[in-house]
Amino acid sequence: MQADLIITNALLVDGSGAEPVQGHLAIKGERIVALGDFRCPDGVPILDAAGRVLAPGFIDWHTHDDG
To answer: I need a surface site. Which of 4, 14, 36, 62 has the fewest CB within 10 A?
Structure first.
């Protein structure tokens, strides 16, 4: 996997109604390239989000809705 940044140990909430899970999120450029429980590659900056919630993909409709 290639990534510019990995956020580790976050409580991941995906908005599907499924139970939150502990895991990682990898970002390459402006895209999420991996989500869940994976091995973090060497040499990629890591941000430890232990004790925090991460909700990737959510859009704030109040400020980012073009509709």
So the answer is: 62
Q: The tokens of 15 are what? A: 């908005």
Report in angstroms the alpha-carbon separations of 20 from 12, 45, 53, 56, 62. 5, 24, 9, 12, 24
pLDDT in tens, 21-67: 999 999 999 899 999 999 999 999 999 999 999 998 776 666 655 55
Alpha carbon separation from 12 to 3, 18, 62, 67 (Å, rounded): 18, 10, 22, 28
pLDDT at 14 over 90: no
